[in-house]
Write a structure and sequence with these properties.
- By secondary structure, the protein is an alpha+beta fold.
- The chain has one domain: 7,8-Dihydro-6-hydroxymethylpterin-pyrophosphokinase HPPK (Alpha-Beta Plaits, 2-Layer Sandwich), CATH 3.30.70.560.
- The protein is 28% helix and 28% strand.
- Strands 1, 2, 3, 4, 5 and 10 form a six-stranded antiparallel beta sheet that branches.
Length: 167
């Protein structure tokens, strides 16, 4: 069994409904849900948009390999209507699912980079991660996610939502 963290986000369409559906699909297809963060509202990261994101992080125990998890995540993104952007630029999306951590695995493959390479730069990942497992060690940096949050230079808008929660 592996411990994994999945970041989920949406800023296009009915974002809360899309995240709620993804939450249920992930619980059915990934493994045992150990913890789920609150939902956070955040500004788009890396691009301009009028649409705010809703984001959360989920912690699972799974029997799937990292490659199998990636296939599940990509399938669920497509099911939610996500259109892959061919350019390297970020853009609005119906659903974004990122495999943040898979135990202490480090993978540098083009199709599978773990831990996710920009965790330490993103409040919308660090805040929910700290909420559910502040002491998780980022194997790439050798620091807890709590330490990464304290050291990040990201100053973008983020706020825990009192309006939305998973059921």
């Amino acid at each position: 069994m592996a411990i994994i963290f999945i970041g989920i986000g949406s800023n296009e369409g009915d974002s809360f409904q899309i995240l709620s559906n993804a939450y249920l699909d992930l619980k059915k297809n990934v493994g045992y849900l150990i913890a789920g963060s609150s939902i956070y509202e955040s500004a788009p990261w890396g691009f301009e948009s009028e649409n705010s994101f809703l984001n959360a992080v989920l912690k699972f125990e799974t029997n799937h390999t990292a490659e199998e998890i990636m296939n599940i995540l990509q399938y669920l993104e497509t099911k939610a209507g996500r259109k892959r952007n061919k350019s390297a630029n970020y853009s609005d999306r119906t659903l974004d699912l990122d495999l943040l951590y898979y135990d202490d695995l480090i993978s540098e493959k083009k199709e599978l980079t773990i831990p996710h390479p920009r965790i330490s730069e993103r409040l919308f990942v660090l805040n929910p991660m700290v909420e559910i497992d502040a002491e998780w060690i980022d194997i790439r940096h050798g620091k807890s996610v709590k330490q990464l949050l304290q050291e990040t230079t990201d100053s973008s808008f983020i706020e825990k939502s009192s309006k939305y929660e998973f059921k």
